[in-house]
Structures are given as structure tokens and as C-alpha cells.
Amino acid sequence: MDVGYIQDCKQHRKHLPGKILSPYVNCYQIISGTFERTKLIDLYPDGGVGVIINLGGAITLNDKIFGKGVYFDGANSRNVLLRVSGDVNLIRVRFNPGMFCLFFNADLENYHNAFNNLYSINCILPKNFFRFLELCSFDEQKVTSIEAWLTYNLSDPDGNMSLVLSTLEYISSSHYDVRLQALAEEMGIEIRKLQRLFKKRVGMSPKKLIKLLRADFARKMLDTCGSLSCLDITYRCGYYDQAHFNREFKDIYEITPNEYRKRLFSEKSECIA
Question: What is an example of a Pfam family matching this protein (predicted)?
């Protein structure tokens, strides 16, 4: 499969999905190697949900310890702190918002900001698949195998899922400036039904998702647009003013945009070293 690759750091790599799964999967993150000191990694919420396949030693997610196994990473609305140390072999699959339910028949409403074994939502890896991933020596082997598994599970959307997908497409194309009542009326659906569908299929309300997606867009601009000030990004992302930007950003990531940018610069310097 044609899988893209982005080098982050030697022990923390990111792979892009192949052509078939690119509309559904955001990326695959692989963290592996021996960490002599505890490494803290921020897992930023992006409106999607994910699967964490832990093939190595114990990891800690928000102060809760997880051993070897496959875990469902719920629709998070706040930053998650991952702690790793010792021998680490971890794969994190990130789905785009709303897309997880095209692969697995799961009701996400009760899994907001939650980590559970994958089987708790009636999803099970194929027999011996976990053991096969343990034996893979290269990232490409792991990612290609996971892509084959996901492609096999991909299904066509039902009527309710089609409504959710249409709403997600509208949210994305409108740059997060959405009047939900007007949108629901245009789609011929009651807004309460739309909200219920989102909580079930996306894991959060449309309003919360819009807030997350806008913050994630701003965060990525902080990552890549070093020439833009925080004030520039404030208005490009549709915030009322910088105080509004700072408040919503800190509510999700627990630091201000300026603090995030300083931390990013520090991490890049450490990675180069």
C-alpha cells in the first residue's frame, strides 16, 4: 500500500495513510525504542478517536497505567499526557472525526475522554494479529498490516451516518463558522436529533467538535507558520480577539498559545540534538 511517512524524531515517527484510507484515517504514530528517562508526550485532541496498540512495556495515560494490549482512545476534548519509559513499542491509530464508526459498530457517547480495552466496544483484533505485530521489525510492516485490517472492516455509511458525514463536511468547508439551527433546518432534521447522532457517532456534540477543530487548526498554524504572530492567527482562525483565543486554547491544551509555541521550539531543538 502507498503509505506516506513524516519523520518526527528517531523514537517518535508519524506515517500517513494510503490512498484508500486517507479520507478516514488521520495518521499512524509509532513510538518505539528504549527510553532511559521518562518521556512525556502530549496527545493533542483533534476531534477524532483512535486505537492504541501497546506491544511493549507499561505506559501511562493521564496517570492511569496500561500494560500490553489494544485500547480504544475515546473522543477527547482535553489534552492527554502520555508517559513512556524503558522498552517501548506503541502504535497509535488516529481516525478523522466521525470516521471510526465506518470501521467499527460502536456507540461513542459513553466514551468521551475515556480509555478502554478495544473489546469493551465489541471490537476485537483478528486472531494472532497482535502477536504478528509484536514480531514486525519495521514500521512499514506494522502500518501495512494495520491498513489491511482496517480496509477489510470499512463499511458504507447508513442513513444516519450520511447525515453526520454531510454535517462534518459542511463544518470543515465553512471554516468552523456554523449556525447549527440553520444547518439542521436545511438538512431537514431536528437539531436535537443531529446532536444525538453526533454524540453517538462522533463522541461529542457539534458545538464541542467545532471548538476543538478550530483550536486544532490554530495549533497547527502555530506549528508551521512561524512568521505569523498569535494575534494574526487569532483573526485567521475566527476568534473574536486574542483573549478569546487564549481562553479556548488553554481550556483544551492547558497552556496559552505563546507557551505552546515556546514549548514547540524547545522540543524541536531537543529532537535535532
Answer: DUF6597
218 closest CA partner among 207, 209, 228: 228
**In this predicted model, what pLDDT tens digit does every residue of 116-152 receive, in sequence order?**
888 888 787 888 999 999 999 999 999 999 999 999 9
Check the CA dihedral 61-95-32-66 and report its sign. Answer: positive
Pairing of strands 80-95, 59-61: antiparallel
CA-angle at 65, arms to 59 and 69, nearest 5° = 65
Label residue 110 by pLDDT band (50, 70, 90).
Answer: confident
Q: 178: domain range?
A: 159-272
Which pairing describes strands 64-66 and 59-61: parallel, antiparallel, or unpaired? antiparallel
Same-domain check for residues 24 and 131: yes
Give the pLDDT confidence of 221-257 residue by residue, as tens digits: 998 888 889 999 998 988 989 999 999 999 999 999 9
Residue type, position 80, single letter: V
DSSP 116-166: EEGGGGT--PPTTHHHHHHH--SHHHHHHHHHHHHHHH-----HHHHHHHH
Residue 115 three-state SS:
strand
Residue from 258, 253, 257, 263 nearest 79 by CA: 253
Q: What are the two backbone dihedrals, phi and then psi, of residue 118, each rounded to the nearest 5 degrees?
A: -60, -35
- pTM of the prediction? 0.88
Domain match, 26 and 148 both: yes
Is residue 111 domain-shared with residue 218, that is, in the same domain? Answer: no
